[in-house]
């Protein structure tokens, strides 16, 4: 009952723009509410990465069982500068890290929709009935996760732990036009599918890790 009353109080305080976030749990602290938002998006990002990893593995086993895939993959998100490791991400700052997360998620809306459509049209039905459903699922999850992170960022601004420089910009403005590859120009084949799945698995893993780091730098001491 006490927990319920605390959350109700935090929600009312949030609407009025009252108490700032605090580090040691003083009365009026927004920490539990913000921690819950982080837990939700982190859980969603982990599930998203898990599904994308499964789909990528299934695709490789079906089409490239020997994994003898030639050529260097060039992901369309190469223009988004991301931290190299955990320490680099921690040094980046909350505002910049939040923006990187939003950029990565925003850049995948179009490619995942195209991937689903292309898979659903493919003649390899033994594989693609299930895989196209997974592609559709992760496409929807990306939109939901990006909306969730954007809303969380707005709460962080309201609570005074994030500056006003982070904005919910349109996906088209996130990546230079020159970075968009074949998926906007022609129909996709199996190798194109593989490259997109490989790149998305990589980027979804980045998002998952960056969200965890963002939580730890924003709310230190909470399972970090």
Automatic annotation (TrEMBL):
<dbReference type="GO" id="GO:0031667">
    <property type="term" value="P:response to nutrient levels"/>
</dbReference>
<dbReference type="GO" id="GO:0046427">
    <property type="term" value="P:positive regulation of receptor signaling pathway via JAK-STAT"/>
</dbReference>
<dbReference type="GO" id="GO:0005179">
    <property type="term" value="F:hormone activity"/>
</dbReference>
<keyword id="KW-0372">Hormone</keyword>
<protein>
    <submittedName>
        <fullName>Uncharacterized protein</fullName>
    </submittedName>
</protein>
<comment type="similarity">
    <text>Belongs to the somatotropin/prolactin family.</text>
</comment>
<dbReference type="InterPro" id="IPR001400">
    <property type="entry name" value="Somatotropin/Prolactin"/>
</dbReference>
<keyword id="KW-1015">Disulfide bond</keyword>
<dbReference type="Pfam" id="PF00103">
    <property type="entry name" value="Hormone_1"/>
</dbReference>
<dbReference type="InterPro" id="IPR009079">
    <property type="entry name" value="4_helix_cytokine-like_core"/>
</dbReference>
<feature type="signal peptide">
    <location>
        <begin position="1"/>
        <end position="18"/>
    </location>
</feature>
<keyword id="KW-0732">Signal</keyword>
<dbReference type="GO" id="GO:0005615">
    <property type="term" value="C:extracellular space"/>
</dbReference>
<dbReference type="InterPro" id="IPR018116">
    <property type="entry name" value="Somatotropin_CS"/>
</dbReference>
<keyword id="KW-0964">Secreted</keyword>
